[in-house]
TrEMBL record:
Gene Ontology cellular-component annotations: cytoplasm
Name of the gene encoding the protein in the UniProt record: hisG
Protein name per Swiss-Prot or TrEMBL: ATP phosphoribosyltransferase
UniProt enzyme class: transferase
Domain ATP phosphoribosyltransferase catalytic span(s) in chain numbering: 49-205
Lineage: Bacteria, Bacillati, Actinomycetota, Actinomycetes, Micrococcales
Regulation: Feedback inhibited by histidine.
Catalytic reaction equation(s): 1-(5-phospho-beta-D-ribosyl)-ATP + diphosphate = 5-phospho-alpha-D-ribose 1-diphosphate + ATP
Cofactor: Mg(2+)
Recorded metabolic or biological pathway in which this protein acts: Amino-acid biosynthesis; L-histidine biosynthesis; L-histidine from 5-phospho-alpha-D-ribose 1-diphosphate: step 1/9
Protein purpose: Catalyzes the condensation of ATP and 5-phosphoribose 1-diphosphate to form N'-(5'-phosphoribosyl)-ATP (PR-ATP). Has a crucial role in the pathway because the rate of histidine biosynthesis seems to be controlled primarily by regulation of HisG enzymatic activity.
PROSITE patterns: ATP_P_PHORIBOSYLTR (PS01316)
Amino acid sequence: MLRIAVPNKGSLSEPAAQMLREAGYRQRRDSRELVLADPDNDVEFFFLRPRDVAVYVGAGTVDAGITGRDLLLDSGAHADEHLALGFAGSTFRFAAPAGTVTSVEQIAGLRVASSYNVLVAEHLASLGIEPAGIVHLDGAVESSVRLGVADVIADVVETGTTLRAAGLEVFGEPILHSEAVLIKRRGGVDGGGDPAGLDVLTRRLQGVLTARQYVLMDYDVPVALVDAAVALTPGLESPTVSPLHDSEWAAVRAMVPRRQTNQVMDALYDVGARAILVTSIHACRL
Ligand SMILES: Nc1ncnc2c1ncn2[C@@H]1O[C@H](COP(=O)(O)OP(=O)(O)OP(=O)(O)O)[C@@H](O)[C@H]1O
Ligand SMILES: O=P(O)(O)OC[C@H]1O[C@H](OP(=O)(O)OP(=O)(O)O)[C@H](O)[C@@H]1O
Ligand SMILES: [Mg+2]
């Protein structure tokens, strides 16, 4: 039975549960449940603090886990990213009161507050910059400068709303682009390969990612224009082209990136395609 660690609260928890549900797994009904067996799928879920997921995976007491790339790197755990999951996207950045600090080099000799000390220390060391110290805080890091325990902060930024509300501005390049990731133990099981069942979990999650990123497009097009139309909808491998009762027309079906749906429909219409239909993909295995 594959043992999978899942965040029990915070920004990652609900979207992780939703993705697993879409991948056909049972998920808990009560947010206080700590363990959930799903015997039909031969997996067991352990609901753990987002920060602790990498620790358990690194120790090998669970086989895989869902966490943030930033949390994984900060943990120093013996675990690696296996699959990017496309949600909980954020950047990890330095910020300071507007106009006070404008370059990363200026951090030398200053106090930096963060919940991600390891990440910050490694990043500054790699740049050869020595801060006066790194102050570890559990959260609400944006308040630390106003309250006098630090001069700059390093924190998760998504929309920037929290920073603005605290009168802070980002400076320097992003330290990291993060998102939710599926992780596994570094070096495999007892020095061997991946844990049994990880391949199935991975294919299922990839199926959800594909179903979210693509739509299915159907259209009719005059046979003489099939090549021009198909060039606009090459699909993943090759589009399906079927004959129609009217032998001068053909029907085409192809997967199209969801973001390009309307541009592709406009272009197909211009080429001469008609009856263009778009449907969502519920699940898939590529
Ligand atoms: N506003 C946000 N938008 C997108 N991702 C975020 C946001 N805040 C946090 N994250 C991501 O979620 C993960 C951390 O989750 P969260 O903030 O819920 O944990 P935590 O701060 O340890 O928990 P809590 O805040 O409940 O104590 C990180 O991977 C981080 O990049
Ligand atoms: O750029 P924004 O969209 O404003 O989002 C970023 C904020 O979200 C997270 O905070 P969270 O809600 O997890 O609180 P915490 O600081 O207590 O962890 C993060 O630590 C930032 O403070
Ligand atoms: Mg948080």
